[in-house]
# Entry
Amino acid sequence: MDENTISKEQLLSDMRVVVNDLEAMLKATANSTDVDLRALNERLRDRLAVAKARLLDAEHALMERGRQIARNTDDYVHQHPWTSIGVGAGIGLLLGVLIGRR
# Structure
């Protein structure tokens, strides 16, 4: 995975935490009698719904990108089997040498 994908995954993870915390706060203040607090609660509920939808869209896009990468890799391996075997063997040899040094 590249650095950009890792940052997207971290961002999605962070957004999930924020959404969960916001939901907990909204539940805790739902029965308040303060008019300003109730108005804030409603605005936050609306924004939370939008954030959840965007988060879901981002997750789907990230998963689709992962599927596309897997399909491309599969296609490459089928089109170039000997090259793929050679690369796999080379990586295996490299890992064996690195592990053997420890």
User: Anything to note?
Assistant: The mean pLDDT is 83. The CA atoms of residues 14 and 30 lie 24 Å apart.
